[in-house]
């Protein structure tokens, strides 16, 4: 087949954007084009391959079964195309060019402010685009090529990835100052009142790490799950509404400053989570990610 009749990368980008956003307007915004340009590009793609990929109605964008298959294949094609540029960058100056990193919410606000100034100073040619999202969406973004690497906490199953462990992050129990039961020393899991435990909602791996560290199945049933940030949970503890689990990096970043909340380390069999940088296995930018991991380790 002549190259003239092959789909263009731009057409495939439009298709993936529509798949991700489910809306022509938002997909066009994501591609920095007008809605009519994106729509015309997709119609050209459908005409080129002779099949309908997307069923269009006034309210709903629905991919056909074949459209779903082609969108999945298109992601792989675009990722391979991006890696051509990655190969060239990897052969040039280290940590230069664009890099998209997803960071989970229980790491981003505590670790990034300490490390980004150094990255800007030492690697001024690196354009680091950051996205804060829970582990599941972050790993999905990595698999689909929307992210180049992910900063997360282990254990977590993130797919076929290379892993650079950074450091262990100890878990602490945070409680209102003056609670006699937790006034001194490390906290035993058996001492935690499950009816007062406040944790982040499902989707935040810190919740799973905290529950696994305690090894008390009844905590999962009794704990109150909150769809919020660690800062908000700390405010609830400060108001006497319960206790929570906090990672050491949050304490080091001053999350308890100006509160009446105290914290003690958890004395458990697995009292820590492991922070790590992960990326797609066999990525041509492996050297860059290893170097980035070495820089991230200095945040410890």
UniProtKB/TrEMBL annotation:
GO terms for cellular component: protein-DNA complex. Keywords: DNA-binding, Transcription, Transcription regulation. Gene3D superfamilies: Periplasmic binding protein-like II, Winged helix-like DNA-binding domain superfamily/Winged helix DNA-binding domain. It comes from the Bacteria. One of its GO terms (molecular function) is DNA binding. The keyword Nucleotidyltransferase does not apply. Residues 7-64 form the HTH lysR-type domain. PROSITE patterns: HTH_LYSR. Belongs to the LysR transcriptional regulatory family. This is Transcriptional regulator. It comes from Sphingomonas palmae.
